[in-house]
User: Which sequence fits this backbone?
């Protein structure tokens, strides 16, 4: 029996939202929000527990995070280890959890018809979990492996350094992830039993009165309510007080400090940080939103505009972070150029001068009203997201806001309070500042080491008078407030759609372009999606051409920034991306002002010129990106080698790095007209736009590029239409490629074991997909949970331009790549018997789960457009793919699936085409040398030279650039 309930009238929801909501409180004081969505294809739930890493006992760092891992294993009612994850995965769902400083969130989604049992399994973790001794030891290794993956991440390292430079007495100072040392070695040395402490943390803190539950289902609210009451009423309520951590983690000794730190990656970053009063206390007034809008602005007169003009910075962001209800930080984060690194004092002075300008000018009502109007539009016309993301977000909000604002959170500031804004501004003073400056140039010039990640750093005090001096000597540029935003949409009306258009139509074609068009028939939002793919044969002809094309797209974004930033603030996102065949322009958002932005982008392309000073900045950025490739995680390096081997006409990263120093502004000036001299535009427009509007937009682009008195571009010759082709591996052969990890400091090794199966064909597609669905969880359980190979252990499908396969991706310090490969083979042998012994009911259940996943409707315009764009880009054009694959699945027999496995996947299968990429970390260097000299096994081929191998292999035919594509 629930103690009370509140229907939707109590909860503010978007005008376009037709879901029903109800708040209930169970007898055990568990508070829940029930969401009924008759249109949903997936159900989901999230439990947010008001206990996080701040509750870790002293000397047991990471215990709350470890508890989050352990809770998933098993329960008294469902004692089979990992059966929860297996059930969820086999029924089309996913499950995960995360631990933050003050709360832990557990969540899952699943196909609709299996939700009730999945919810029951989920509830048992909070009623009677089984945290076995055996699982405890194994999962400590998983936590340690997770930490191993983070050790060389600059984001993790710098976050921990900021915590380290704070009061030791405050839990913010702690290391929250945990590792083998903190959870096994040190507790054991002190005579502590980690499992005992784990159970104690659970018993003393996991109380229903500290929990908030969100359940998202297809049924009506009454049915959901009775289900929730029945399943969750047994969670015990020990009436635990909400843990409180008063006080700020930064005392005076941690303020007015300059911390210099050495990152892993090339580059320089500056963080200017102030402790502030948490703005969650004033979420209706939104002081941090107001200040982050102005300090983080990129239009003319902003801090970033000045820094960019001076060539000192490539990005700037500002806003509140690391906040709780007791403390918070306001951060300005700036990516510096090499020149900016030499002017850090000036940059700090400039930021503080802008803050001073805001303090002097006082809060502006028109700016607040503008932000409020944008917030209103964003909230009321928000895209529907997947249920799993929705429940996590709302459950987190329930811990912080009154019920009426659970869906809104702090996204709708509505009360203009100059005094509150001014009060937050008054905290951003020189006396209150913390400066973290990171650069590889500090290597060898530091005297301290952060204990958990080993980050080298130094710290010095800086007085208020020194900072005042920086402010005086900062560049005397004209800083001012932004102009009114002309991109805020005012016409949010919906266009009439004539007839039901189920799939994209080829609306127009010419020798210059093709336009695919799909009106919005589902989402009823005033938004549109525009994608224009520039196919330029000269863009990818050489490593130099590829680098220059990349630099062109970055310069284009750079030139647009101060103008188009206003569009971004108003809900129009845009991107210009380099592709293997040229570049793409994407514009998404409210359709009212969208065309203005598209035409501005095209005008910038047509009138493109190379500004040498900006070219130099972009070249520096590109060089650092190339240099930082070696700091990617080993599994990412393995995936890169896999793509390089499989994809024809691709260039390796080190060729680009070698070409880059020789490229000057003049090279791009000469290259750009050549690149654009022959091009074909593949266009897709969807959403709230009528056919004539779409046609007119593309006609305008053609007129600008192809039809002027001196045309910039000409149509492609038929021989120039681009293809995307993939290497065809030989049947019955196992290929392998060995490489040393590019970062000698990284102990992790990685394996990508890829099995190539076929070229896009519905029946084979569904056999492969069904195998992947059935094998995914057993692979994770065996290789990650039981054998503890590594935190990153994935079985997933792979799709390259219509060529389909499956891949195991594993990263490990426990074993070298060759041994990981042997474990993958052992798993496939073990899985073979499970597949043969599968009951008819289990087979049918998996088929049903896959059908349900395929029938899942797109949630929003972006998701739908991405699906159809993939068909257009690859040239497959199978817009009815999902219905065709469902039809194929309904005919599929268990024998056909087993035959497929025997033929393409199992160890030693006659038609199997396998490629194993082995990247050796520093722990396994000796194995690399040994494995290199090992003789090849029968039917295996070692790839020594990727490009000789590529040239020697036949290619699959390309869907793109075929007869259907070229015929006009």
Assistant:
């Amino acid at each position: 029996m629930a103690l009370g309930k509140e229907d939707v009238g109590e909860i503010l929801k978007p005008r376009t939202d037709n879901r029903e909501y109800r708040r209930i409180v169970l007898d055990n004081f568990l508070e829940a929000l029930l969401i009924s969505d008759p249109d949903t294809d997936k159900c989901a739930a999230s439990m947010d527990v008001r206990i996080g890493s701040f509750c870790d006992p002293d000397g047991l760092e990471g215990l709350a995070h470890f508890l989050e891992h352990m809770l998933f294993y098993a329960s008294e009612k469902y004692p089979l280890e990992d059966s929860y994850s297996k059930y969820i995965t086999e029924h089309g769902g996913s499950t995960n959890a995360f631990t933050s400083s003050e709360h832990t969130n557990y969540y899952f989604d699943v196909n609709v018809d299996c939700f009730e049992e999945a919810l029951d399994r989920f509830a048992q973790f909070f009623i009677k979990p089984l945290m076995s001794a055996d699982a405890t030891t194994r999962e400590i290794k998983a936590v340690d492996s997770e930490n191993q993956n983070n050790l060389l991440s600059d984001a993790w390292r710098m976050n921990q350094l900021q915590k380290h430079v704070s009061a030791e007495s405050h839990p913010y100072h702690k290391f929250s992830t945990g590792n083998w040392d903190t959870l096994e070695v040190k507790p054991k040395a002190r005579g502590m039993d980690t499992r005992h402490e784990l159970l104690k943390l659970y018993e003393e803190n996991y109380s229903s009165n500290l929990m908030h539950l969100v359940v998202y289902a297809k049924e009506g609210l009454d049915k959901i309510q009775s289900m929730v009451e029945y399943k969750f009423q047994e969670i015990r309520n020990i009436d635990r007080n909400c843990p409180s951590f008063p006080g700020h983690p930064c005392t005076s000794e941690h303020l007015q400090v300059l911390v210099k730190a050495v990152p892993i990656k090339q580059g320089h970053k500056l963080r200017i940080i102030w402790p502030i009063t948490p703005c969650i206390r004033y979420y209706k007034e939104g002081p941090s939103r107001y200040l982050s809008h102005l300090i983080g602005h990129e239009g003319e007169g902003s801090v970033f505009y000045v820094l960019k003009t001076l060539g000192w910075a490539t990005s700037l962001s500002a806003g509140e972070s690391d906040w709780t209800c007791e403390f918070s930080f306001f951060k300005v984060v700036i990516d510096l150029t090499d020149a900016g690194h030499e002017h850090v004092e000036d940059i700090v002075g400039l930021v503080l001068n802008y803050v001073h300008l805001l303090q002097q000018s006082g809060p502006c009502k028109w700016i607040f009203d503008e932000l409020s109007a944008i917030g209103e539009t964003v909230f009321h016309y928000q895209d529907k997201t997947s249920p799993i993301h929705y429940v996590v977000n709302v459950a987190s909000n329930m811990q912080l806001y009154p019920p009426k604002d659970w869906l809104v959170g702090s996204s709708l500031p509505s009360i203009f309070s100059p005094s509150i804004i001014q009060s937050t501004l008054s905290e951003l003073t020189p006396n209150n500042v913390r400066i973290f400056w990171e650069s590889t140039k500090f290597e060898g010039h530091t005297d301290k080491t952060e204990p958990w990640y080993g980050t080298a750093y130094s710290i010095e005090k800086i007085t208020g008078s020194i900072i005042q001096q920086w402010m005086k000597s900062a560049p005397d540029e004209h800083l001012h407030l932004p102009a009114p935003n002309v991109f805020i949409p005012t016409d949010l009306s919906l266009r009439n759609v004539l007839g039901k258009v189920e799939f994209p139509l080829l609306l127009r074609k010419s020798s210059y372009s093709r336009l695919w068009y799909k009106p919005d028939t589902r989402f009823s939002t005033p938004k549109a999606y525009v994608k224009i793919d520039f196919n330029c044969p000269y863009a990818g002809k050489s490593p130099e051409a590829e680098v220059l094309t990349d630099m062109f797209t970055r310069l284009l974004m750079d030139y647009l920034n101060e103008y188009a930033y206003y569009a971004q603030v108003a809900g129009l996102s845009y991107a210009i991306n380099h592709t293997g065949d040229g570049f793409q322009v994407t514009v998404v958002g409210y359709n009212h002002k969208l065309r203005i932005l598209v035409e501005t982008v095209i005008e910038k392309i047509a009138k493109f010129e190379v500004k040498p000073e900006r070219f130099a900045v972009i070249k520096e950025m590109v060089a650092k990106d190339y240099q930082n490739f070696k700091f990617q995680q080993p599994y990412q390096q393995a995936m890169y080698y896999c793509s390089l081997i499989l994809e024809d006409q691709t260039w390796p990263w080190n060729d680009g790095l070698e070409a880059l120093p020789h490229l000057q502004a003049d090279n791009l000036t000469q290259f750009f007209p050549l690149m654009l001299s022959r091009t074909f535009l593949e266009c897709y427009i969807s959403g709230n736009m009528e056919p004539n509007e779409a046609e007119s937009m593309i006609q305008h682009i053609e007129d600008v590029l192809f039809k002027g008195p001196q045309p910039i571009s000409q149509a492609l010759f038929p021989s120039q239409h681009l293809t995307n082709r993939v290497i065809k591996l030989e049947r019955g052969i196992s290929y392998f490629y060995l490489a040393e990890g590019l970062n000698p400091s990284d102990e992790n090794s990685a394996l990508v074991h890829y099995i190539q199966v076929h070229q896009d064909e519905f029946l084979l597609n569904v056999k492969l997909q069904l195998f992947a669905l059935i094998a995914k969880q057993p692979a994770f359980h065996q290789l990650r949970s039981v054998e503890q190979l590594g935190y990153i252990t994935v079985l997933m499908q792979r799709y390259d331009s219509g060529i389909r396969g499956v891949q195991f991706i594993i990263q490990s310090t426990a074993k070298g790549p060759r041994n990981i490969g042997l474990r993958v083979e052992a798993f496939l042998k073990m899985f073979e018997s499970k597949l043969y012994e599968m009951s008819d009911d289990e087979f049918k259940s998996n088929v049903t789960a896959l059908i349900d996943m395929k029938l899942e409707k797109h949630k929003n315009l972006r998701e739908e457009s991405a699906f159809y764009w993939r068909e257009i880009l690859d040239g497959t054009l199978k817009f009815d793919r999902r219905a065709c694959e469902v039809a194929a699945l309904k005919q599929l027999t268990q024998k056909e699936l087993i035959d497929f496995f025997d033929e393409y996947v199992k160890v030693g299968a006659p038609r199997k085409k396998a490629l194993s990429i082995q990247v050796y970390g520093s722990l396994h260097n000796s194995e690399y040398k040994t494995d290199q000299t090992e003789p090849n096994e029968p039917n295996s081929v070692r790839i020594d030279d990727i490009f000789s191998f590529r040239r020697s292999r036949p290619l699959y035919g390309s869907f793109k650039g075929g007869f259907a594509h070229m015929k006009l």
